[in-house]
Amino acid sequence: MAYRELRDAQGRDWRVWDTHPQSVRHGSVPEDYAKGWITFECAAEKRRLIPIPSGWSELPEPELLDLLGAASAVTARMGRL
């Protein structure tokens, strides 16, 4: 798993890593996510980007910030009762 940290124009610190599901059962993750995604997380929000761009972990920070801008916000899920 690759890992990066960056700061956006608003001064928020982001942690960035790639996620690869170890096993995918039918319906356990959306089909688009079966090959993995990049997670962007700061104190206030989390985003995901699919598909994982080749060489993302070596990109210059301005290009990584572009990927952050293209990532989709993750909505919080409530725990099951």
What do these coordinates show?
The structure is a single chain. The chain is globular. It has one domain. With 81 residues, the protein is α+β, with helices and mostly antiparallel strands. Strand 1 and strand 2 form a beta hairpin. Helix content is 12%, strand content 28%.
Q: Any key phrases for this structure?
A:
81 residues; alpha+beta; 5-stranded antiparallel beta sheet; 1 helix; 12% helix
Question: TL;DR?
Answer:
By secondary structure, the protein is of the alpha+beta class. The chain has 1 helix and 5 strands. The chain has one domain (3-73).
Shape: globular
Radius of gyration (CA) equals: 13 Å
- Count of individual helical segments: 1
In the sheet with the most strands, the strands line up as: 1-2-3-4-5
Coarse structural class: alpha+beta
The average pLDDT value, as a whole number, equals: 88
Provide the domain count: 1
Strand content: 25-35%
Give the N-terminus to C-terminus distance in angstroms: 32 Å
Number of strands: 5
> Fraction of residues in helices?
10-25%
Query: Which stretches of 5+ consecutive residues score pLDDT under 50?
Result: none
Biggest β-sheet strands, sense, barrel: 5 strands, antiparallel
Would you list the SSEs in sequence order as H and E? EEEEHE
